[in-house]
Amino acid sequence: MSFPWAEQYKPKHPLMQWVDDRLPVPRLVYNAVGAGYPVPRNLNFFWNFGVLAGAALAVQIITGIVLAMSYAANAGVAFDSVERIMRDVNSGWLLRYAHANGASMFFIVVYLHIFRGLYYGSYKAPREMVWLLGLVIYLLMMATAFMGYVLPWGQMSFWGAKVITGLFSAIPLVGEPIQVWLLGGFAPDNAALNRFFSLHYLLPFVIAGVIVLHIWALHIPGSNNPTGIEVKGPQDTVPFHPYYTAKDGFGLGVFLLVFAALIFFAPNFLGHPDNYIPANPLSTPAHIVPEWYFWPFYAILRAFTVDILFVPAKLMGVLAMFSAILLLFFLPWLDRSPVRSSNYRPIYKKFFWFGLIPTVLALGYLGGAPAEEPYVMLSQFFAAYYFAHFLIIIPIISRIERPLPMPGSITDAVLKGQSGSTISTSTQTAQTAPAA
Amino acid sequence: MVRIVGILVGLGFVGALLISLVSGLITYISEPAVETAEHAFHLHPKEVHFASDGPTGHFDRQQLQRGFKVYREVCSACHSMRLVAFRDLEALGYSEAEVKAIATQWPVPSPSINPDTGEAATRPSVPADRIPPPYPNEVASRAANNNALPPDLSLISKSRHGGAAYIYSLLTGYRDPATYRNEEGEALPAESQPGQGLHFNPYFANLNIAMAPPLTSTGQVTYADGTTSTVDQMARDVSAFLVWTAEPKLESRHSTGIAVMIFLLIFTGLAWMAYRNIWAGVKH
Fold this sequence. Notes:
The structure holds two protein chains of two kinds.
Chain A: H1 14-22, H2 25-33, E1 38-40, H3 49-68, H4 78-87, H5 92-119, H6 128-150, H7 155-166, H8 175-183, H9 190-219, E2 237-239, H10 240-265, H11 295-303, H12 313-326, H13 331-334, H14 346-368, H15 375-400, H16 410-415
Antiparallel strand pairs in A: 1-2
Helix pairs in contact in A: 3-5, 3-9, 3-10, 4-5, 5-6, 5-10, 6-7, 6-9, 11-12, 11-14, 11-15, 14-15
Chain B: H1 2-30, H2 37-41, H3 61-73, H4 96-104, E1 110-113, E2 120-123, H5 138-144, H6 163-171, E3 199-200, E4 208-209, H7 231-246, H8 250-278
Antiparallel strand pairs in B: 1-2, 3-4
Helix pairs in contact in B: 3-7, 6-7
């Protein structure tokens, strides 16, 4: 599962030789994230986010396990147990703020990771399985984050749980029984809180398992790169360690700086004040909104306002919201262009920067805005573009587009200064690239 | 095949969304939204500075003690503080003996049981007790307050948009509904005039709040440090106190944060140099 010129693991110490003969775990690590994994030499900083997502998962699991030692999953005391963590548990405030903001950081880096894949065509053959497993991780993350947000049992926890499980009631005939079955009752209560806690503890480990598969699948063809050209020889690659461990070390520092700034100086910036009010089934908040990372999908959900024929608007909204994610599973077959990197795809690139990116940002803003005009009309416009982008525009572009001339190899591109390893040299994208 | 199905599904969603958009647009044009009184009269919190603001913010202990006095003598008549224990007050600069005195002299005793009969009873509070609520339960609370429920104040500055500035604005924001004019010079419409037992306050989302103006005159609370207790000063002090009740670990959060940021800046700088050093000979 590697290039023939990959460096071979040679144990230096007799003890390591002894281990290697019996259970070659050091060899596995060496080949996966050590010098035994040759990586294209021209990766730019957008390739940092995979490692950062792994770091975010590790932070979440560690802080989560310690928080669970003081948290009580019972609707009667859950809210107060969280406040006890904040007030009386040693450094409990740090653990809880790290966990709450860690979820946001996890989503930030995963979103950047996904958009890296979209821009540089990392979902295309032969890396379809990497993309599909990544989407499975993303779905698991959404489920985990949603259930985690319910655990403090504040107002938004309760009403968020009610709205999201209510989506299942849109299914014809069996919807209501499914919602009652999921919640273990007619409204979120102790039964729902307990099962959410159980699953919230389980799913991160499932995510870790799928990450192993994700990396395994990645190591079969090796990493993509900003030119999208396959590796042709030893001159195109450098060993992962020390080259990319050093680059990821710097990325990790920047990640932690942003993370620490949130935890220590704006810990509630990304949260909602209503979640500091204990859950109250008799008092509905004025605006029920999920956490920010669900806003684009929440905007799509609420954009369907008219029943069409026999299909109720609510059902269409639910179908559209799930389709908005599910369609990404078909992307490798919707986009038939053999060219991966957008740097050589002039039309796709325009639609990426001026179509998809503004649309997703706008939907994100609109999902957090109240459900009134003109926000709803704007959501309808941008949601329509979102579906059109993936289901109509991309298939058409991949048929009519004439790609720009491409360098012969990665090394060729590097020598011409067109490797895309720094953002400024990647032709016209410099002005529009986010400062990530 | 995938692309044909994809285009059909795409056209379906786009069509449904455009139909929704057109229908919404027709409604929007034919029945323009009427501006509600809440929209026209609601004010955002005033600009006000607290010592706890900003990345190096800390608590002004004199102010917290003044704010605590306002809470004890005014707010605590109706509002509970169920997450704060008397022992926590040592963080305000009170000595152990002072905290003990505050606990035993608290106007409401702590609930207890009679050790001989097991019947419900009360006893004076000790520092380990949480501050006892003014009413035994929600029904009693509503019965005494014209059916409105005074919220618990422990987390109030984190559970409202605007935080402490909102509390300060609300406490100093009561206006006479008969003479009030908003920025456009409009008077409050008749249907938005406060009903029985309600009080006009443009900083409150509904405009009319069940709480009567709690801080009304200079000297309502006598400060131990000699500060003149104007309404503005009392509102400021109690807002600062409520920042502390909601976030008692704010100071250690800020000081830890500064140390962590300095450490991370050095770490990131070294990581940058290591990265540049390792890549120095490799064109990429």
